[in-house]
Amino acid sequence: MRECSGEEEFEKQDQGRYDARMEKHQWQDDSGEFAILYRAEHFGGNWTFSSQEQVGGRGDDKADWIRLEEPVDMEHLHKLRAVLWNKYQRKRCPWKLIDKLDKVIAKREEEE
Questions:
Q1: What is the CA radius of gyration of the chain?
Q2: Helices then strands (H, E): number in the chain?
Q3: Cβ proximity of 37 and 28 under 8 Å
Q4: How far apart are CA 31 and CA 34, in angstroms?
Q5: Which DSSP letter does residue 58 get?
Q6: Could you tell me which residues come within 8 angstroms of residue 108 by beta carbon, excluding any fewer than 6 positions away?
Q7: What pTM did the predictor assign?
Q8: Helix 95-111 / helix 74-89 crossing angle, nearest 10 deg
Q9: Could you give the CA distance from residue 26 to residue 48 in angstroms, rounded to a whole number?
Q10: First-to-last CA distance in the chain?
């Protein structure tokens, strides 16, 4: 049986904590009269996407979010990638999350 070095063990522990917490990321798409607010949630290695219409400015936090059906458009994945990249540059998002999303995007592009 091979023993893990201290650094490998830390990475395993860090990965476990990372997958166990939910990450939420939001962005807005303006299209004329109203805006659409998108939310992407990452939990347990899976992404879920939701949207909500915003009429006249701010969205209603109590309004229902509509879950987007799988597979989501590549446009949504690329916009999420841009949001995560901006957060990463401000040290508010781990690189592992961007790397995982890049793998999802690459897999989807291969399928198309």
A1: 17
A2: 3, 4
A3: yes
A4: 6
A5: S
A6: 71, 74, 77
A7: 0.72
A8: 160
A9: 12
A10: 42
Amino acid identity for residue 62 in this structure: K
Q: Half-sphere exposure of residue 66, counting CA atoms within 13 Å on the CB side? A: 9
Sign of the alpha-carbon dihedral angle for 21, 35, 65, 99:
negative
The answer to whether residues 49 and 55 touch, using CB atoms and an 8 Å cutoff, is no
User: Cα–Cα distance between 14 and 9 in angstroms, integer?
Assistant: 8
pLDDT tens readout for residues 8-54: 443 444 444 555 678 899 999 887 777 889 999 999 888 999 999 88
Q: CA-to-CA distance for 90 and 7, rounded, in angstroms?
A: 25
